[in-house]
Amino acid sequence: MKKVSWSSGTWTHEPVAAVEREDGLHVTAKEGSDAWRITSYGFVHDTEHALLAPFPADTATEVAFRLDLTAQFDQAGVFVRVDDATWTKAGVEQSDGLASLGAVVTRGSSDWSLAPVPSWNGRLVTVRASRSADALTVRARVDDEPWQLVRVAPLAPDAAAFAGPFCCAPTRAGLTVHFTSWQMGDPDTSLHP
Fold this sequence. Notes:
The protein contains no helices and 18 strands. By secondary structure, it is an all-beta fold. It has a single domain (29-181), classed as Jelly Rolls, CATH 2.60.120.200. It holds the Pfam family DUF1349. This is DUF1349 domain-containing protein.
């Protein structure tokens, strides 16, 4: 994996602040920021803070951040975007009092999957999205523990996609996410170890 410069990305929606320091990028989300389309809730939210760069076929993008989420639906991780109605966000979200690892895959309408990871609080989380053939494969880990498979979703091989770190704060002001790295490289070689 090779380091991606924070300055090489373009924001989908500007955050309150994005401050680059020696230890990474500190991003403060706007209250009410989120990404969701229709399913169950009936609304479309398209206000996420995603710092995106081109994500060609047969590559992977990887984002690491310190897990410090406290309010309902605080979230951070990797965002992969094709267009307004075709995107995936994957990472950790604070849901009903617990940090939960999951993904939202959107193809017209959003879906949502979560699994609680309360032991990850305060630790370094890394989320990797690999693009290979017709699939987007998302894995995550905490510190240097083994990778966990989060999601396999369709992504057309010829789609022009963009990817990078993201955060949202749907219910409050003041969420600042400390992203420690952003890298790109070769995709994972297989779905299973």
